[in-house]
Amino acid sequence: MSTHRMGSGDGGVHDPHSTVSRSETDVVFERIAAQVVDFGFVFVLAFVFILVFFRPTSGLVSGTGIFLGAFVNFGYNFGLEATWNGRTVGKWLLGIRAVDESGRSMSAAQALLRSIPALFSFGWLSYLVALATMASTDRRQRLFDTVAGTTVVSDASRRNRPRAAG
After folding, report:
1. pLDDT band at 17, cuts 50/70/90?
2. Which residues contact 166 (CB under 8 A, 6 or more apart)?
3. What pLDDT is attached to residue 29?
4. How far is the CA of 86 from the CAs of 112, 125, 147, in angstroms?
5. How confident is the model at residue 46 (pLDDT cuts 50, 70, 90)?
6. Domain named RDD: which ranges (predicted)?
7. Is residue 136 within 8 Å of 100, Cβ to Cβ?
8. Residue 126 and residue 58: Cα distance in Å, rounded?
9. Which of 62, 87, 104, 158 is at a distance of 20 to 30 A from 2, taking alpha carbons?
């Protein structure tokens, strides 16, 4: 079982309270697929939101649409992860969820912190940064996962596992 908080190999910080193993975070492809599913949901939600609140008759929709799309993306990720035990629709379909570094359900504040990139994730560069940081951390964490103290695990690996006392 991994006891590193951040970083890979022996460069990480020792965390004696960690119960999340590296194998439980081996869900990179599931995370990518969940992101694609979630993007589809966010796209539809943003499109409907714009049609309902802004009559698409002017150039206002293009600039405003991108701005509003970012906030819909943020609200979708934060709202679902904060209220649905670390899951979005994509994570639920792929059998993964976000948890704190000890393996417990994350707090709303942690969901808020890890959702900040959703405000800026409409470009390929943000996904490249996310993949690079996932490759460089022991628990495959994105930059804002490390800031929030969260990681993404296989939901099946957490299901029937006894909780540590404390």
Report:
1. low
2. none
3. 92
4. 11, 25, 16
5. confident
6. 28-149
7. no
8. 30
9. 87
